[in-house]
Amino acid sequence: MSDKPVETPAAAAKPAETVEAPAVVEATPAAEAPATTEETKPTETAAAPAAEEKPAETTEAAAATEEDKPAVPEKPTVTPIQALYAAQQEHGHPEIWGVTLADPAVHVPSQIVFQKYLNANDGDLAKAKDQLLKTLAWRKTTKPLELLEQAYNRDKFAGLGYVTAYHKDATGAYNTEEPETKEVFTWNVYGNTKSIDKTFGDLQEFLHWRVALMELALQDLGLASATKQITADYDPYKIFQVHDYKSISFLRQSPSVKAASTETIKVFAQNYPELLKEKFFVNVPAIMGFVYAFMKLFVAAKTIKKFHPMSNGGGLAAEFGSSAIPDLGQRLPKEYGGKAADLKSLGKETKLEAAAVEEVPKEAAVEETAKPTEEAAPAAKTEEAAAAAAADPVAAAAPVEAAAAEPVAEPAETKETKA
């Protein structure tokens, strides 16, 4: 019995082995595991974390399962431009201003068209969409590109409207990457009207001619081949407009002229937004000052800044010093202060019907040949009449009344759309 106490220290050494037991237990088969005692409990406790790792595996499995499930797509952000394109696609009419509309993400001309409708409505998508759809419906019905190919009555419309275009390098090709270097003008010269009743009497015919002139200008603007996008603040794709009121009376407008003017305002305001760069009213009478002041009460300040009434058309050339075309003013028609030929020689008109040729009756020709002496007296009378006209040009011109079509109120449009 005296030997037993000697073995006690060896037994006391077991806990040290037990501390390392977790590693041993993992390598020991379950059948050889030591009996459960108070000394082995720490081993069981140490093994517990291994069991607790299962939730992590479960989480990974759950994550894998979630990945296998179809992901719930986030609602895509549709840009206003894409929304307008979708509206156009739903409507179906494929064209505006000579541009065959396509995905604006990859088609610059379409981006320009849709952005102009947004700009015209200060970025309001609902209003822009409404205006766009109305334009599409109007173009589908009116067919402006077909109107451009139509020939118009020469007696009614010859000399009333022209289009001129200029780009920086007059002798070279226009660079589409520099749209600022092209300028397009439309010229309305209603003082050349031969007959108020003929020109404005048929409202539909007048509107068709006026739309054709605008489409002619848009062809020169070249939106269909544009390569540079626009923004709310940058848009070089616009047109100068000049309205020449020489020899026009503002005090005696006929009902047909007023009707033509009113309808033109409506059509252009709705269907040609954001296409005006600046508008010049030249050779205007003194009353224009009153009309211009009156317009300020009803037209947006942003738009009214683009209107420039001028009493002397010869000063127009001096108004383009800020153009990207340095010599633009000098290249304008000579009657507007430029150094080029006159407007009739420079400008393009809409297609016009061939001039009618009047045949002189043979009897009249023989009679004139047989009586040369009788012409002396009429010739003298003609000279007297010419002298009288020179002395009193106002009285001589009295029978000719050239009331204005498209009065200055025409620009009072939805935004900056103009006839």
From TrEMBL:
UniProt xrefs under InterPro entries: CRAL-TRIO_dom (IPR001251), CRAL-TRIO_dom_sf (IPR036865), CRAL/TRIO_N_dom_sf (IPR036273), Sfh5 (IPR042938)
Q: Which UniProt keywords apply?
A: Cytoplasm, Endoplasmic reticulum, Heme, Iron, Lipid transport, Membrane, Metal-binding, Microsome, Transport
Question: Where does it reside?
Answer: Cytoplasm; Endoplasmic reticulum membrane; Microsome membrane
Show the PROSITE patterns listed in the entry: CRAL_TRIO (PS50191)
Q: What is its main location?
A: cytoplasm
Q: Which domain of life is it from?
A: Eukaryota
Q: How does it sit in the membrane?
A: Peripheral membrane protein
Q: Where is the CRAL-TRIO domain?
A: 204-344
Q: Where is the composition biased (Low complexity)?
A: 7-50, 375-411
Question: Which transformation does this protein catalyse, written as a reaction?
Answer: a 1,2-diacyl-sn-glycero-3-phospho-(1D-myo-inositol)(in) = a 1,2-diacyl-sn-glycero-3-phospho-(1D-myo-inositol)(out)
Disordered: annotated span = 1-75, 359-419
The record's annotation in PANTHER family points to: PHOSPHATIDYLINOSITOL TRANSFER PROTEIN SFH5
Main role?
Non-classical phosphatidylinositol (PtdIns) transfer protein (PITP), which exhibits PtdIns-binding/transfer activity in the absence of detectable PtdCho-binding/transfer activity. Regulates PtdIns(4,5)P2 homeostasis at the plasma membrane. Heme-binding protein that may play a role in organic oxidant-induced stress responses.
In its UniProt entry, what is this protein called? Phosphatidylinositol transfer protein SFH5
